[in-house]
Specification:
binds guanosine-5'-triphosphate, binds magnesium ion
Length: 290
């Protein structure tokens, strides 16, 4: 959903001629906004209802109505870190979505809160991926555990957990590959990493799996997310590149279809460009209220 969606919704709501073409235009806009046909019809029906019931309907009444329809579909998860244990965050996503950048941002966030953070370079598929993570680790002053490119990502994670524990670290952020020879290979690798974290006895309460979704991805984001969720039960989503043309409707659909909350939002390329996800401002900007 382009940023213009809220503005277009608002201008459509400014029209007071509620004839059939009005509802056609509304439905078209909602579909284009990636809200899906079911939700589109639901919202359109609610608007029809409100138009019948309420005289002197304002633009704001209509924006609030759409927001109320969307609210039950948006959930928030702000991960808490147990200072007395090793917490492991696995960061997943297809290539280029912003995994490595997001890891650096999360590392900075928790380091600033006084936690000791280590990065694990488990994207061993691409040589440059390890170097990229190392550059971030150096700049941020956090430790990195790595092996040679092409080595087994599971072995990197195994070592990283062992050494992070030995040092008494509180947060281990695991970078993973988004690209593999094929989908089956990727799914197998991820399942293996997941198994190793469990075998190492990391308490499920301290182990969270995040899928990074590029906010400019439309409908195919849902099929991507479904593959990851099936391979390795996800805990939450991270929206990256929300400063670009965000597809808000698609993001709502992904979260709702998979029953996943949203944790963080990336709003730029700098380390400080990470926000905790909040439903209210997200929904306000979506319907043009903010
Ligand atoms: N504008 C903007 N750009 C971002 C954001 N997050 C990441 N990027 C950019 O997206 C590009 C890809 O980011 P990476 O962190 O390398 O993505 P990745 O998922 O690790 O990529 P692979 O390792 O190749 O799979 C980089 O140019 C980042 O600067 C964001 O929140 N906003
Ligand atoms: Mg990367």
């Amino acid at each position: 959903m382009a940023k213009g969606f809220g503005a277009r919704l608002k201008s459509l709501f400014g029209i007071k001629r509620f004839d059939e073409s009005y509802f056609e235009e509304l439905e078209e806009l909602l579909i284009e906004g990636d809200l899906g046909s079911k939700l589109t019809m639901q919202i359109s029906d609610e608007v029809r209802d409100l138009v019948r019931k309420k005289k002197d309907l304002t633009t704001k009444d209509l924006q609030l109505l759409v927001k109320e329809q969307l609210r039950p579909m948006v959930h928030t998860f702000h991960p808490a870190i147990d200072r007395n244990a090793l917490n492991v965050f696995l960061i997943l996503g297809v290539n280029g979505v912003g995994k490595t950048t997001t890891i650096a941002k999360i590392a900075r966030l928790y380091k600033a809160q006084g936690y000791s953070v280590t990065l694990a370079a488990a994207d061993t598929f691409r040589a440059a991926a390890i170097d990229q993570l190392e550059v971030h680790a150096d700049r941020l002053g956090v430790r990195i555990v790595k092996q040679e490119s092409g080595s087994d990502p599971g072995a990197v994670v195994f070592d990283a957990i062992t050494s992070a524990r030995a040092r008494g670290d509180q947060l281990l952020l695991v970078d993973t590959a988004g690209r593999m020879h094929n989908k089956e290979h990727l799914v197998r690798e991820l399942a293996k990493i997941d198994k190793i974290v469990q075998t190492k006895g990391v308490d499920p309460a301290h182990y969270k799996k995040f899928l990074v979704i590029d906010s400019t991805t439309g409908q195919n984001g849902l099929s991507q997310a479904t593959i990851f969720h099936q391979a390795i039960r996800l805990d939450a989503l991270i929206l990256s590149k929300y400063d670009s043309l965000a597809k808000g409707g698609a993001l709502i659909q992904i979260g709702d279809s998979l029953g996943l909350p949203i944790s963080f939002v990336g709003v730029g390329e700098k380390y400080g460009d990470l926000e905790l996800f909040e439903a209210e401002p997200f929904l306000d900007s979506l319907v043009g209220l903010a």
